[in-house]
Amino acid sequence: NQQTRSMEAALPFESNNFSYTGIAGSNNYNFRPAAMATGQRLTLSAANRNYVLRGMYTYNSGLTEKGWAYSANITYRWANPGYVKGTSYNALSYFFGVQKLLSGGHSLAFSTWGNPTERGTQGASTDEMYWLANDNQYNPYWGWQDGKKRNAKVIESFDPTAIVNWVWNKKAGTTLNTGAALRYSLYSSSALNWDKAADPRPDYYRYLPSYYKSNEEAFNLYTERWRNDEDMRQLNWDGLYMSNYNAKKLFAEGANPNYNGSTYILENRHSNQLSFAFNSTLNHRLNEYMTLQGGVGFNYTKATYYKTMRDLLGGEYWTDTDKFTERDYPDDPTMLINDLDNPMAKVYKGDKFGYNYDINSIIATAWLQNMINRNHWDFNYGLKLSYTQYQRDGKMRNGRAPKNSLGKGKTHTFDDAMIKAGATYKADGHNFFTLNATYGTRAPLADNVYISPRIKDNTILGLKSERILSGDLSYIFNYSRVRGKITGFWTNSYDGTTRSSFYDDNFSTFTNYVLTGVNKTYKGVEVGLAVKITPDLTVSFAGTFSRYQYKNRPRGTRSFENGAKADTTQIVYLKNFYVGGTPQTAGSLSINYNAPHQWFFEINGTWLGDAYVDLSPIRHEYMPGLLSFCENREQYEAKVKEITNQEKLRDAFLLNLSVGKLVYINRSLSLNFNVSVNNLLNKTDIQTGGYQQSRFDYTNYSADKYPNRYYYAQGIRIFANVGVRF
C-alpha cells in the first residue's frame, strides 16, 4: 500500500504529462524510492473479510547524501477460514526498489515486487439455494475431509514483476522518462472433473427440491434434507474417494474391464503470461503557454493455457480423452483424443492434459499531444497510433480438429488510431467549462478473437477493431467553502467482441460462444460536490444517473468442443437491453470531521440502484421450435418476454463509519489507529452481482429450470488498523 501512494491520476480526456489518457482514465505509479516518504512503518490489522489478519512492514531510506534511495516492503495476509464458510486466504507480498541520482539530470531506478497467493473461493448460487441454506453467503465449493474443510476451487497466483526506469531532466521544462518491465504471471484455478459418474456438485439442479416440484413427496423430502442436513449442501469428498476406490477394486477383480482410471479428479486450469513492456515518454515545454508530450510503447506477451492434474482423489491415473465426445462418437475413437500424438495417455499428478496452447501478442503504440494554456482558454489535442498482432500456437493435435490445432496458426493484425480534442473556458478564477471528444478504433482482446482456442485455430468471421466515439461536457466551480463538478457524458462503442464458455445441456458438451458486432451506449450525468461547513467539518456528495445499453442485434457464434455440430452463427436480439454488472444510478453522502487532538471521523451513506444481471446471449436467439410449442400468438409473446426478461438487482443502501486517531510521540515517532465499519446496518440481502445461466430448457421453453445466479454482499464488515511510524 505504501509503495502505490505516489500516483498521478488522469480522468477520461484529461491532459497529462505521462500518457494518452484512456476512455476510463489513466494512472501513473511512481515506484522510484526517492519519491517515497522517508522512514519505517509497521502496521497490524484485523478484519472479518477475505482475510482476518494482516502484518505489514515498510522501509524507505529517503535520498542519501550520495544520491541513493532504497525502499522495501513485506506484507502477509491470512485467513482460515475467511468470512465465508470454506474459504481461506494465504498471501505474501514483497517490494524492493533502489534508485541512484546521477549527474547531468539523470536518474536510474530498479523496482521489483510480487505476491504469491493461495485462496479458497466462493461460488454464485441461486436464490433457492440461499433460502434452503438460510445463508446468503452459502458456498457450494467446499466440504469436510478428515475433519478439515476443503475447497474445490482454489486459486493460486504469483506475478513477479521487475522494472528498470531511466529519467532524464535535460533542462527546465524537458523530461524524458523511459522504462522497461518484465512480468511473469502464474495463475491457476482448481476444479472438479468426472467421467461416467454423477455430478458431484451439491448445487447441481437435479439435487434441488425445485427439480421435483411436480412430485410433492420428493419435493418435501429434498426440502427437508437441504434445510436440515448440512452434508446435503456440501461436497462429499469421502464419496469421491470411495467411488475411485470402488472402480479400482472392481477392475482388480475383473469386474470392470473398461476401467480408465479415476472416476473423479481435481484439475488445475492454468493461464500464465510472460510479458515484456517498453515505454518512453517525452514532456517538453515549447514556450510559456504551450507544452508537447509524446511517447512510444511496445508490449510482447506470451499467454499460455493448459491443464494439469492436481489430485487423482485416490485413483491411479486419468485417461486423457474428451468425456463429452466419447458419448457422441463411440465408433470414431480419434474424435475423443485430446492429443493424437499421445493417444489415450495416462495422466498422473502434475501432468499436462486436455489442452495446451499459447497466444502470442505484440502491441506497439506511438502518441503525441499538444497542451495550450492561455488566460481564459486551455486547449489540448492528440493522436495515438497502434499496431496489434495475435497468433495462436497449439501444442496438441486435437482429434476434433487434427489439421487446425497443432502448431502456429494464422497471424492476425490490426492497425488502429485514436484522436482527441478538448477545451476549457475559464470564466474567472472560480468557474470553468470543459468540452472533450474522442474518436478512434482499438483491437479486440486476444481472448475474444478465437472461437474455441482450446481445440482449434479458428477465429470469428469478419474480425475487426472496435470503434469508439465519446464526449463529455462539464461545469466546474471552486470557491472557498463550496466546490464541485457536474458532467454529462456519452460513449458509443461499435463492433465489439466478447466470448463466454458454458456447458450446453442440449448438446451435452462444453460450448464457446462469441458475440461479434456488439454496439453499446453509455450515457449519463455525474455530480460531485463538497461543502466546508466549518474549517474542520466537510459534507460531500457524489452521484450518477446513467444508462448503459446494447444498441443493436449482434451475431452470436456457437462452437461445440465435442465436434457434434459445425460452428453456427445467428442474430442475437439484445437491442435496448441493459449492460449488466454495475449500478447505473448511485449516490453517496459523506460527513467528515477533523476533531481536536488529531481525531478523524467520517460517516457515509451510499445508495445503489438500477443494476442488472449479466445477459446470456442464448436466451436472446431466435428459437424456431417456440412458435409451434405455443398454442397462440399471445402465449408466444408471453413466453418470449419470460425467456428474455433481464432481472433488475435489488436497490441497496449502505451506511459506513470510520474513526481514526493520530498520536505524535516525538518528531520521529507516531502512532495511528483506525477502525472502519462498512454495512453498519448489517444488511445481508444486498445483491452485488448476478448472471443468467447459459443453460436453457428447450423442452419446456422455461427459464425456471436454470434460474439466475447471484452474489450477495457480506453483512457488517469491520477493519481495525494499528500503525507505528518511526
Describe the fold and architecture.
- With 726 residues, this protein is mostly beta strands.
- It is built from seven helices and 35 strands.
- A hairpin with a 7-residue loop joins strand 27 (555-560) and strand 28 (568-571).
- The protein is globular, with a radius of gyration of 29 Å.
Q: What are the key terms here?
A:
726 residues; two-stranded antiparallel ribbon; 52% strand; 27-stranded antiparallel sheet
* Helix residue percentage: under 10%
Overall shape: it is: globular
Count of alpha/pi helices: 7
Task: State Rg.
Answer: 29 Å
Largest sheet report: 27 strands, antiparallel
The residue ranges in which pLDDT falls below 50 over 5 or more consecutive positions are none
Q: How many E strands?
A: 35
Q: Decide which structural class fits the backbone.
A: mainly beta
**What is the residue-mean pLDDT, rounded to a whole number?**
94
Distance between the termini: 17 Å
Beta-strand level of the residues, as a percent range?
over 45%
Characterize this entry briefly:
This protein has 726 residues and is mainly beta. Helix content is 9%, strand content 52%.
